[in-house]
Input
Amino acid sequence: MPHSVRHEPTPLEIVKDNNMEGKLLGKWAVITGSSSATGIEIVRALAATGLRLILPVPNQAEAMVTLGDAYHPNRMEFVTIDHTSLDSVREAAKHIISKTERISLLVCNETATPSPDLQLTKDGFEVQFATNHLSHFLLFQLLKPELLAASRPRFQSRVIVVACEEHKKHGLNEKSNYNFEKGGYDAAVAYAQSKTANIYMANEIERRYGTRGLHALSTNSGRIIAAASQSDDGKSLHPNLQPETAGKSCVRGTTTTIWGAIGSEWESKGGRYLSHCADARTRDSEEDIYGTTCAKHTYNPVEEARLWQDSLDIVGLLDDQ
Ligand SMILES: NC(=O)c1ccc[n+]([C@@H]2O[C@H](COP(=O)([O-])OP(=O)(O)OC[C@H]3O[C@@H](n4cnc5c(N)ncnc54)[C@H](OP(=O)(O)O)[C@@H]3O)[C@@H](O)[C@H]2O)c1
Output
């Protein structure tokens, strides 16, 4: 049963409720964006399942410090990655594959800091589209054989792409305008496009590989609040609001991602956008106080297929189907 938005558990409670403590020992997971904020809590919760973790990070020494007590060197390994560079993603994938032939879980959590002005990566792509979407698309493609190889009847392989409520603001630009080539750059639109792309990637992975035991979900962490109120989920700042509207701590902002990543409810399933620990409903009214709805464009097989093909062309890969 989906959890009530008013009684959303912590990520570690999700692990316990699903009887997953130590149950994934011997299996491997890759988590991007693990070196700050919600990423640290994803590491902490997934470590409790026994998974061995590969953590692609921009700076290994800094990541070790920020992960603090969540870092366990005997069960975690860093790989250096710069998500703004497709070459760096290719290099990181090579290192990951050199460590394991089977990956049961890929969590795409990394996100670029939105820039008020249009910025292009050195590959020539708008920064948010490039780092939030293209880098994860390429990483998935390069790790796909290992993800397929790891799938087992008791735990089929999963890809979790962390998206955002903000995707509702905008779908995909047209093919010739992913990088705002036609002008009109807006940081919020660029972020929304990249987060819609995250959801479309998950939906299309499910469509293409679900029957082969490789599933994908997208998740919304919810608005993360300032560090000052991490301990009480913002209650001191917004005593009359639920965390879903007031904002969440990094810990609770991780719950939905962990639910999708290891929750038994999602075994052998995918292609859904999860928000606040529920399968988000299509918006049918303007009342959305808990942000548990999706937008009309959240599911769009035609646009999902278009993005997939365009992304293959951009990263220089051929379709395998
Ligand atoms: N924060 C929110 O309110 C919110 C709301 C809804 C959804 N989300 C989604 O939740 C996810 C995590 O958000 P967050 O707020 O926890 O993110 P964050 O604190 O901004 O952390 C981003 C992570 O990505 C890494 N990163 C950034 N640029 C990179 C690059 N070029 N190469 C390699 N790594 C890079 C950062 O590494 P370093 O720190 O080591 O540089 C960090 O670990 C994102 O997908 C975001 O869209 C967030």
Notes: Residues 127-150 form the longest helix (24 residues). The chain is about 35% helix and 15% strand. The pocket of NAP is lined by residues 33, 35-39, 57-59, 62-63, 81-84, 109-112, 131, 162, 164, 220-221, 223-224 (CB under 6 Å).
